[in-house]
Amino acid sequence: MKGKFIVFEGCEGAGKSTQMRLLSEYLKEKGVAHVVTREPGGGEISEAIRKIILNGKFTEMTDECEALLYAAARVQHLADTVEPALRRGDTVLCDRYIFSSYAYQGYGRGLDMRFLRDINRYAAEHFMPDVTLFLDIPPVRAFERKHGADENDRIEQAGAEFHEKVYRGYLRLAEEYGDAFVAVDCSGTKYETNGNILSILRCRGLIA
Ligand code: TYD
Questions:
Q1: 55, 173, 184, 208: which sits with the fewest CB atoms below 10 Å from its CB?
Q2: How far is CA 125 from the centre of its chain?
Q3: Exposed, middle or buried, 60 (CB in 10 Å: 0-12/13-18/19+)?
Q4: Ligand 1 centre from 196 Cα, in Å?
Q5: What structural domains and CATH numbers belong to the chain?
Q6: Whole-prediction pTM value?
Q7: Which runs of E-coded beta strand occur in 53-173?
Q8: What is the CB < 6 Å shell around ligand 1?
Q9: 174 contacts 182 by C-beta, under 8 angstroms
Q10: What's the 50 CA to ligand 1 centre distance in angstroms?
Q11: How far is the CA of 65 from the centre of ligand 1 (A)?
Q12: Residues 6+ apart with CB under 8 A from 18
């Protein structure tokens, strides 16, 4: 694959959208062709699956069903958005990817990691990101920033304890994956965080 695949991860309200926008502006200035996309979603079918997964009315959805729907949306999104872009040589900036499944469905819901690795094998074997940037902000602070949880969003409604487990899961993933999953210091302003991200990407030769 010719293009670079850069993934953003973090708890709700960690500032992923802002950081993706700042990086996209930087790439635009430098004339780097790129695609900004998100999971679950990014294409027509995956966006339809997203509406089912996040629907606040579906309180009886099992954790396994949830995990399988995320994996299904992922495979479709890879086929219709990510793979074509990488083949063209574009850089792909993706809001969330398999590490969200490991953190939310694995560490958060408590599903077996082997099950999650199995259902995500296609993504993990064929489309591992060049780097995953984890915006490291504890969920309590992140929710404060976004003024509380969205009452129509099933995952945001999962409660503080759930989001704390997700955060701790992310920290474990950072230890486990080393260089491929980097915790970004977000303690400064959004521009300082953007600066941290640019240096990480430059160090790895992912941007000029
Ligand atoms: P979204 O509104 O995009 O949240 P955010 O703006 O915080 O990224 O909704 C995506 C939700 O789906 C978010 O709560 C995280 C969750 N999620 C999982 O639980 N597992 C996954 O594999 C993915 C991709 C997302």
A1: 208
A2: 17
A3: exposed
A4: 23
A5: 4-203 (3.40.50.300)
A6: 0.95
A7: 91-95, 131-136
A8: 12, 16, 38-40, 54, 70, 95-96, 100-101, 104-105, 155-156
A9: yes
A10: 9
A11: 15
A12: 190
Q: Which two tokens stand for residue 27?
A: 């790439």
* Segment 98-113, tens digit of pLDDT: 999 999 999 999 999 9
Letter string b/e over residues 13-47, b meaning 16 or more CB atoms within 10 A of that residue's CB:
bbbbeebbebbbebbeeeebebbbbbbbbbbebbe
If we measure between CA atoms, which residue out of 120, 91, 82 comes closest to residue 103? Answer: 120
Q: Rounded to whole angstroms, how far apart are CA atoms 190 and 192?
A: 5
Q: Whose CA is nearest to atom 5 of ligand 1?
A: 12
Among 17, 100, 156, 166, say which to mutate for ligand 1: greatest number of ligand atoms within 8 Å of CB.
100
